[in-house]
């Protein structure tokens, strides 16, 4: 008699190659229409499931966690960030949680550079001028932006993605400053200046790149007081989580001209972003595309599957187990 495959719920419509492997190895409950689950619907959908493959934004909070059926043993999130999963509440239910580190480092760092360059070089205004038929031709003073090469870049959060941003910025001969919970060893620091207190770094930042995860300590960390410490004309780039920024404060500084521009891929409460962003010509905005390459999204899915398979099929610990901090 063949053993029944464990049932796994995919909360979102994942890339075809990922869903094909999920369906081959598990009794997969897919979501081809990509309907968003709220907490009660998620609880209902996990009936009989041993695992959940979820994504950022799914409501895997303490309330949902408390209502999940006893059959659920692992939640594998298709993301490196896991602020949407209450890992402490999962531990209380004896549910393992895994994420997908490493595989999206390069794609996200690439988008950080796109945001940096897009903001500094006024890409939004340029493309809008052209596409609305308002380009009258080259002019000596047209769309002059901020020079990137040789400037100072401060990185908040020097994990894998922060380090990959630094590597790219070095190609622009930027001077790197960073703040991180722990100082990196010289081989990884590569001459960057460490600031034990992130506030002390701000006055050195022509550009500030946010690469820190969303935690209670980083919630609205970029606030009015800290923005005021950035040099006039600085540029803020956020490819981590929108909640790390106080939107009101950032928008006010972009309107007042204290900040020259911002390049933003992630928003608090996305997709319902702060209305103030829409009118800002000096904001280069992207709809959370950091990891959106075919290669990366497949790799993220395969990593989530590696974790599900290790745990549910081989009885091993998931290789990317995350713990409550
Ligand atoms: C993902 C991300 O696309 O992995 C992360 O933490 O921010 C994104 O790149 C998204 O979160 C998918 O769940």
Name a few traits of the molecule.
325 residues; Rossmann fold; 15% strand; single chain; five-stranded parallel beta sheet; 33% helix; binds 2-keto-D-gluconic acid
Short characterization:
This protein has about 325 residues and is of the alpha/beta class. Helix content is about 35%, strand content about 15%. Helix 1 packs parallel to helix 12 and helix 5 packs across helix 7.
Q: What proportion of the residues is helical, as a percent range?
A: 25-40%
Overall pLDDT level = 97
Largest β-sheet summary = 7 strands, parallel
CATH class label of the largest domain: Alpha Beta
Helical/strand content category:
alpha/beta
Q: Domains counted in the coordinates: how many? A: 2
Record field, number of beta strands:
12
Bound molecules: 2-keto-D-gluconic acid
